[in-house]
Write a structure and sequence with these properties.
mainly alpha
């Protein structure tokens, strides 16, 4: 039992270490954009740095929403296909004919 707990802790800490770089990117990129666009501040447009950071954050948000919607729908479709194949309610309409062959191909995606 203690071995599995240690393995889970090791896995979780490795996963958290892997998330450091994306976290830093999300935090430091708006700061870097604001600093870089301070070069372009003029009397005519004093808020260009703030506008550029706001635009970056808006585009990231829109892209994140679109990606989340796409992945959510795709995951639901894969789950429905997996369940249909397991129950045998869907026939394979390609060169692969049997339910077992489909499960062998799709099982790594759902385990």
């Amino acid at each position: 039992m203690w071995v599995s707990i240690r393995a889970n802790i090791r896995t979780a800490s490795a996963a958290l270490r892997g998330m450091v770089a994306p976290g830093l990117l999300a935090v430091l990129m708006p700061v870097a954009v604001g600093i870089i666009f301070r070069i372009f501040i003029t009397d005519h447009d004093p808020l260009i740095a703030a506008d550029s950071v706001a635009a970056l954050l808006m585009v990231w948000t829109i892209g994140g929403i679109l990606m989340a919607t796409f992945l959510n729908n795709g995951g639901g479709a894969w789950g429905n296909a997996k369940n249909s194949l397991r129950q045998g309610t869907m026939e394979a309409k390609s060169l692969i004919r049997t339910r077992q062959q489909w499960l062998v191909i799709l099982s790594p995606l759902f385990i």
